Amino acid sequence: MVTGQFFRKMGAAAAAALALMPALAFAQQSSAGHPEPGQFHLQPSVTPIMDSIVAFHDGILMWSISLIVLLVLALLVIVMVRFNAKANPVPARFTHNTLVEVIWTVVPILALVVIAIPSFGVLSDQMTMPDGERKYLGANVFSMGEVDVPAPALTVKASGEQWYWNYEYVDQGVAFDSNMLNEDEIAALKPGQPRLLAVNNELVVPVNTTVRMQITASPSGVIHAFAVPSFGIKVDAVPGRLNETWFNARETGMYYGQCSELCGKDHAFMPIGVRVVTEPEFEAFITAFEESRDYATAVATLPAL
Ligand SMILES: [Cu+2]
Fold first, then answer.
1. Which stretches within 83-178 are classed as H helix?
2. Distance between CA atoms of 231 and 50, rounded to whole angstroms?
3. Which residues of the chain does CATH 2.60.40.420 include?
4. How far is CA 62 from CA 55, 109, 110, 116, 247, in A?
5. Is the pLDDT of residue 28 over 60?
């Protein structure tokens, strides 16, 4: 039967495409700390938290989504081919089937449990400040924790303003504002930096160091959210409330994020730029910042971007 063949071919093509999806996702890795045109996966990870998010996405979510889509597709094809009016002119008239109802209740519950167990592990890693002893999941979301993370050595407070970010090195008592650069400013000051993401003053942090991020918003302002995809962090910035998260980046470079809570007219224009530098570079930067209390003087100690 022509229709049946057509649907069988469609089913096979869809199955092949879906089976390839997780493999394709793996093939899309690159090292940029910002999204790229045509990108089709999460941004490359540089922290243990993002490692676990990527592993959870590629290892569990993609496979369960793909299998569920294939199962539903197969059921639809069976119904269309075997139970259309021509193939099945006299329909059955039963209204219940206890076995089928038990199966379609229990199987989704099992699927949710399989997804939930590692997801709670990933979540608690994100919410638990390292103390130097706790082990983190890293890329193995089914482990009981196997990645060592040192206790925080630096505390940064990010405050969402209307519409830019203010960063404070809390223990050093120095702070600065970070505003988006427009295209002319990028061309003049920081050629090659990405449009709508480049900022005038980047948050500078050391590599391989646990950074405690305190996140809030201007007391007279609105809610924002601080998010850096390559670090796997996204935390609400709420006026009058101090939220906390952490990251430990293993590669130097520029990493970009964006305000991720709709906050008003310039929500799309308050990007987050984090520059991860070597430890000696950071020492020079923060010493100069403490002495001069001037961001421009401090950042002049770093190599040009
Ligand atoms: Cu905002």
1. 98-127
2. 6
3. 152-299
4. 10, 18, 16, 14, 25
5. no
Residue 169 above 80 pLDDT? yes
Distance 124 CA to ligand 1 centre (A): 25
This complex has an ipTM of: 0.95
CA 270 / ligand 1 centre spacing (Å): 6
Position 126 scores a pLDDT of 92
CA of 227 to the centre of ligand 1 (A): 10
> Which architecture, in CATH terms, is 2-136?
Orthogonal Bundle (1.10)
The pLDDT, as a whole number, for residue 29 is 42
Compute, in angstroms, the gap from residue 155 CA to the centroid of ligand 1: 21
Asked whether residue 148 carries a pLDDT value surpassing 80, the answer given is yes
| Residue 109 vs residues 52, 93, 106, 120, 122: alpha-carbon distances, Å | 23, 29, 5, 16, 20
Q: How far apart are CA 100 and CA 199, in angstroms?
A: 57
| CATH pick for 152-299 out of 2.60.40.420, 3.20.20.80, 2.60.40.10, 3.40.50.1220 | 2.60.40.420
Q: With 0-12 CB in 10 A as exposed, 13-18 as middle and 19+ as buried, what is 16? A: exposed
State the average pLDDT for the chain.
90
